[in-house]
Design brief:
The structure holds two protein chains of two kinds.
Chain A: H1 2-24, H2 29-55, H3 74-98, H4 100-115, H5 120-141, H6 150-155
Helix pairs in contact in A: 1-2, 3-4, 4-5
Chain B: H1 2-13, H2 15-33, H3 39-46, H4 55-80, H5 90-100, H6 104-139, H7 142-159, H8 163-180, E1 184-185, E2 192-193, H9 207-226, H10 243-252, H11 254-269, H12 275-288, H13 293-297, H14 305-328, H15 334-345, H16 359-389, H17 395-411, H18 417-436, H19 441-464, H20 472-501
Antiparallel strand pairs in B: 1-2
Helix pairs in contact in B: 1-16, 2-4, 2-16, 3-4, 3-15, 4-5, 4-6, 4-14, 4-15, 4-16, 5-6, 5-14, 6-10, 6-11, 6-14, 6-16, 7-8, 7-12, 7-19, 7-20, 8-19, 9-17, 9-18, 11-12, 11-14, 12-14, 14-15, 17-18
The chains are: A mainly alpha, B mainly alpha.
């Protein structure tokens, strides 16, 4: 997983840095100077990283950073990772479709019920408390402008 | 001078000023805890409310609020791995790692105690340095500021990973951060760079959604994968026993805390660098304080020194940043620029007058920073055990709360869905970096420093052509950049040969 992630990142950066330099060449020098000065070494370093990954000893290199848990069996870890991504994508879709206030209540409730398998009372109670805190702070106190969702627009309820 | 100092204290302790300070502290406390809600934005929102106040009351309110934001932002970083503020992201690396080891109490104790030390050092610097600092600020032009930024990136890139490949990844991550910072309208020619006809990208990438994505998303995924609480299945008894240990850690590594506080103060004084830079430089310095390569491997996995450094620096920078603002009317950061607006609203003109006619007001600012931080830290310590217990709350209760904070935190940066997309995109990048063993710190520093590096490089070349490369301070900083790159390599080599000698 580690080497594959590194390879994806390395190739992705190579493509982005290469494209950034090519695009920058069409700009006046004042605007192009910095992207070119940075883009070329980044492209070269990314190429070296990819080459190291493909041809090297497979040594990962230790980052001074947090590491993903390794005690979960790989198959379960991949399944749960995809599940986490699905929840985040679902939350975003809910925000766009139903707007922030509704999406918050919906996602919190569904997460507790489906993922946490909590009882109805706890799921509804926790959702109500969290929603009330969200509403009090972000809507009433800070007056943040949360736009209505697409559904409200389609149905004319927004 | 002593009279003015005492008078400044009495002014802050007057009931009205003190009440406004408490109100400001209360606001700053929550703003710091909530990710995405920035101290700068809140400062701007609160500015109109000071119209009717006297200068001391106005500054007690604004500074009281502003000076505690970084302290409580550290709490969110430690407990949930989400930066409560842009200036508290570095605390995540070791602070959250400690929380996951069941040492949340110790991490919080350490970050609060070091924050207090940092704030006191910053306030002391403000009180003492005004007459000294003028020549220093004036000696630093664009070439020197450019080189400070380069030293910062070299520092963190070379120290944030082990071995040759780790260093390559560190520099690559730093370079990527600088490249990403070029998105948006370019400051020299006004060209829209890499905006792909999107109006949202014209202003560049907002730091808050990027930081939230790159730090919080990998943590959330890992929490889902583990299926446990943040602290895992560790016995509950350990959690709330460490707070005092964290305080002791601050005094065990007292000189490191002081040095990091001074780094924060220095960066605060320098115009345009800001708290986000200070914390990473302090983190780099804390990592450099490791005596061996093996010891350094513990950083990022829960070394308390990685908490003390950024904790001290992101608080001490406030006192430092006030120095050029008060003395010369030159704000060192966006928050100080807003505060400068506060000066004019209150009928004060920053400059020599603040050191003569209004010296008591200047000292009241010093006391506000000191008192606000002491009050906040004491209040935090009262609730520390309860806060630490959040790390044993079951994951499926915590994850939806964190998700809500992450999505709202990123959305509130500009009230635009683009911020949420940006957060998710950089969440994916952050996850790949963590999975691949890449350090995230250099990327963030590159992103923070991108505009500063570009502007100062352009001004240096346009004004001095190549002559800026031979300026004495530039040469010293260049040598320092080379030294910070070579130091870990030499240290690793020495460590290898020592191991070989011992068999």
């Amino acid at each position: 997983m580690g080497n594959r992630a590194s390879l994806i990142l390395g190739v992705g950066i190579m493509i982005c840095a290469g494209a950034a330099v090519v695009i920058a060449m069409g700009w006046p020098w004042k605007a192009a100077l910095f992207p070119i000065v940075i883009g070329i070494p980044v492209f070269c370093m990314a190429a070296a990283e990819v080459a190291w990954g493909l041809l090297g000893s497979g040594h990962r290199g230790e980052a001074m950073d947090f590491q993903l848990s390794e005690h979960v069996p790989p198959k379960i870890a991949i399944r749960r990772t995809l599940l986490a991504i699905a929840w985040m994508a679902g939350f975003f879709a809910a925000i766009v479709l139903a707007g922030f206030p509704l999406a918050v209540a919906l996602v919190v409730f569904l997460y507790l019920k489906l993922q946490g398998r909590e009882r109805w009372v706890i799921s509804i109670g926790f959702t109500l408390i969290l929603w009330a805190v969200f509403y009090a702070i972000f809507d009433r106190l800070l007056h943040l402008p949360f736009p209505a969702g697409l559904i409200q627009g389609w149905t004319g309820l927004g | 001078m002593i009279d003015a100092l005492l008078e400044g204290l009495f002014l802050v302790l007057q009931w009205k000023a003190f009440a406004f300070m408490l109100l400001g502290i209360g606001l700053g406390f929550w703003v710091g805890l909530l990710p995405g809600l920035g101290g700068v934005t809140t400062l701007a929102l609160m500015l109109p409310f000071i119209y009717a106040m006297k200068p001391v009351e106005g500054f007690a309110f604004l500074l009281g609020m502003h000076s505690v934001v970084a302290t409580t932002g550290d709490i969110t970083s430690v407990l949930f791995g989400i930066p409560g503020e842009g200036t508290t992201a570095a605390t995540i690396l070791d602070g959250h790692a400690m929380a996951k080891k069941g040492e949340a109490g110790r991490a919080l104790g350490a970050v609060l105690a070091s924050s207090l030390v940092g704030a006191l050092v910053g306030a002391l610097a403000l009180a003492l340095a005004v007459p000294i600092v003028r020549p220093l600020v004036l000696a630093f032009g664009s070439p020197e500021l450019f080189m400070i930024a380069i030293v910062g990136i070299a520092f963190i890139a070379s120290l944030s990973a082990q071995g040759g490949r780790g260093m390559l990844r560190g520099f690559l991550a730093g370079g990527l951060g600088l490249l990403v910072a070029t998105v948006g309208q370019d400051p020299q020619a006004g060209i829209a760079r890499y905006t792909f006809d999107s109006l949202y990208l014209w202003g560049g990438l907002d730091l808050v959604p990027v930081l939230i994505g790159i730090f919080a998303i990998p943590e959330i995924i890992d929490l889902v994968v583990r299926g446990t609480s943040i602290a895992g299945d560790l016995p509950k008894g350990r959690l709330n026993q460490g707070a005092l240990e964290g305080v002791k850690d601050t005094f065990r590594h007292f000189w490191l805390t002081i040095r990091c506080s001074l780094i924060g103060t220095f960066i605060g004084i320098m115009p345009g660098l800001g708290g986000a830079v200070a914390q990473w430089l302090a983190y780099g310095h804390a990592a450099q304080s490791a005596r061996s390569a093996e010891e350094r491997q513990g950083f990022g996995k829960g070394d308390v020194r990685g908490v003390l450094g950024p904790g001290a620096a992101n608080n001490s920078k406030e006192g430092g940043a006030l120095i050029p603002t008060v003395a010369f009317g030159v704000p060192g950061s966006s928050s100080m620029a807003i505060l400068l607006g506060g000066f004019f609203l209150l009928g004060l003109v920053p400059g020599p007058d603040m050191l003569t006619a209004h010296l008591t007001v200047t000292f009241s600012m010093v006391w506000t920073i000191v008192l606000a931080n002491i009050i906040t830290v004491v209040v935090c310590f009262l609730f520390l055990n309860h806060l630490a217990r959040l790390t044993v709350v079951r994951g499926h209760f915590l994850i939806p709360v964190i998700l809500v904070l992450v999505f709202i935190g990123s959305y509130t940066s500009n009230n635009h869905y683009g911020d949420v997309v940006l957060m998710l995109f950089f969440g994916a990048v952050g996850y790949l970096m963590v999975a691949g063993g890449w350090p995230r710190a250099p990327f963030v520093l590159g992103l923070v420093l991108g505009k500063i590096v570009e502007n100062n490089l352009y001004i240096s070349v346009a004004r001095y052509e190549t002559a800026w490369l031979t300026r004495p301070i530039v040469l010293v900083l260049m040598a320092l950049a080379v030294a910070v790159v070579l130091y870990p390599l030499l240290q690793a080599r020495r460590s290898r040969s020592r191991r070989a000698e011992h068999g």
